[in-house]
Structures are given as structure tokens and as C-alpha cells.
Design a protein that fits this description.
single chain, 250 residues, alpha+beta, 14-stranded antiparallel β-sheet, globular, disordered N terminus
């Protein structure tokens, strides 16, 4: 069920967005592949999915150690400031509220479900991971049909820190962005065009307009355009890396 929820969440977030002139500093014309790949990740809301995956894996648990996890009612709190058995030095806190979609503590359908990170940071050797901010989702009545999704998070996966900020409202299966933009460190900020479709292409408006068809070629490259000019964006892995926090906060 969680996978279906995450797929629905990602699709709804990408359905449509409204432009905001305050978030147009992204310099797509001079960007590196690494910068553009990070922007694509953020624009397809992988960081939002990451937060919800963490919430689903820890909600309802009680365990001592590093990290320490405790659940009271509908709230699970994860505390750190310690070093894990697998060598990660972790600081910060995570609060997961009303996230009982599967086993364990049941979800209250009258309340939103959320995951909030308070300066969560993990380091090991030359690797680092950071999470800060909150994502939340509410549903229509007792169903799992999305009613509203909000996100205001900063995330780094041993790479460029990126920001996701948006409010999505849904009714009768149709979702629209009330607000929405992304930001990538060293690249700048951009809005997501209302025409973006997670299964076809995304369009980001910064200092230039970046259009990226979702389907990659055999070499793992996106055949994108920047202000209409062809721009190939390549990623040799061709697949999403596993969520590192599932190992860090196990």
C-alpha cells in the first residue's frame, strides 16, 4: 500500500504548478550534468518520497540505542546525537505523526500525516546526509484519496543540497499546485510549469526554461532542451539509489 501511496503522491505533486517570479534564479544554460540531475530529482519529488519512506519505516516503533525511537499515541519521535553501530555520527531529531498506513499504530483519518526533520545530519568518513523541514499529507474523509500535500524541506544525499517547497490541493482526484518551486545549491531556484507530467516530461522555469522528457535513452541520458536548444543530461547509473536513511536509522 505504501508504494501505491508514494506513487500517487509523486504524480499528484507533479500534476500542476503555479509560477512565482521570486524563484527564477536557476542558471540552466551553464549548469553541469550533476546540477541538472539534482534538479530533475527534486522536480520529480524524490526527496518528498524519501521523507515518506522514512516515516513509514519508523512509525509506531519503540527501541533504545542509536537512534532511540519512542511512540506515544500517534507520534513517533526519533532522537540521535550519537554514533550508530554501523559508524554513522547522527545529530538532530525526527518526528513522525499519524503515519500508520500498514501494521502497528493505526492512523487517525481525521488528522494529517506528517514527517518532520529537525536538523537531522549523518556523517561517516567523507559521506554525509542531511534532512530538515516537513512534509505532510491529508486525505479525503476516511479514504486514501489525497486532499492536500505540503512540503518545505532541505535534503542532501552526499551531494548538492536541494529545497522543495509546495502546497498541493486535491479534490475528486484532481490536484493543483497552490504554490510550488525548487532550489538546488549552486544552481538556483525554479518553478515547475503547470504542463509538467511525471510520466512524460517536466518543465522548469529559471533564468532559462529547462524541458526534460522523463524517458532516458540507452546510455541513461535525458534528451532535454534549455530555451529550445538541445541539452543531453547523462547519468550512468540509470536508477535511483536506495534510501540511505533506511540503513542509518535502522
Amino acid at each position: 500500500m505504501r508504494l501505491a501511496l508514494l506513487a500517487s503522491l509523486s504524480a499528484s505533486l507533479l500534476a500542476t504548478a503555479c509560477a512565482d517570479d521570486a524563484h527564477d534564479s536557476a542558471t540552466f544554460a551553464t549548469a553541469t550534468d550533476a546540477q541538472l540531475l539534482r534538479a530533475i530529482d527534486v522536480a520529480t519529488f524524490e526527496d518528498v518520497e524519501l521523507m515518506f519512506e522514512i516515516g513509514g519505516s519508523l512509525y509506531g516503533r519503540n527501541q533504545p540505542g542509536c537512534p532511540a525511537v519512542s511512540t506515544t499515541g500517534l507520534v513517533t519521535t526519533v532522537t540521535t546525537d550519537c554514533t550508530t553501530d554501523n559508524g554513522w555520527a547522527v545529530t538532530g531529531k525526527l518526528v513522525i505523526t499519524n503515519f500508520g498506513f500498514e501494521d502497528g499504530v493505526a492512523r487517525d483519518p481525521a488528522q494529517p500525516s506528517s514527517v518532520e526533520a529537525f536538523g537531522l545530519r549523518a556523517t561517516r568518513d567523507d559521506r554525509f546526509q542531511t534532512l530538515d523541514g516537513e512534509v505532510s499529507v491529508s486525505f479525503e474523509g476516511t479514504t486514501t484519496d489525497l486532499a492536500e500535500v505540503t512540503a518545505a524541506i532541505d535534503v542532501s544525499d552526499n551531494n548538492l543540497v536541494a529545497h522543495t517547497d509546495g502546497v498541493v490541493r486535491c479534490a475528486s482526484g484532481t490536484c493543483t499546485f497552490a504554490e510550488g518551486w525548487i532550489g538546488v545549491d549552486t544552481l538556483g531556484e525554479a518553478t515547475i510549469d503547470p504542463s509538467s507530467n511525471p510520466e512524460e516530461q517536466i518543465t522548469l522555469h529559471g533564468q532559462q526554461t529547462l524541458v526534460v522528457p522523463i524517458e532516458r535513452d540507452a546510455e541513461g541520458c535525458y534528451a532535454a532542451t534549455v530555451d529550445g536548444a538541445a541539452r543531453q543530461i547523462c547519468d550512468a547509473t540509470q536508477r535511483r539509489a536506495p534510501n540511505p536513511w533506511r540503513t542509518i536509522l535502522r
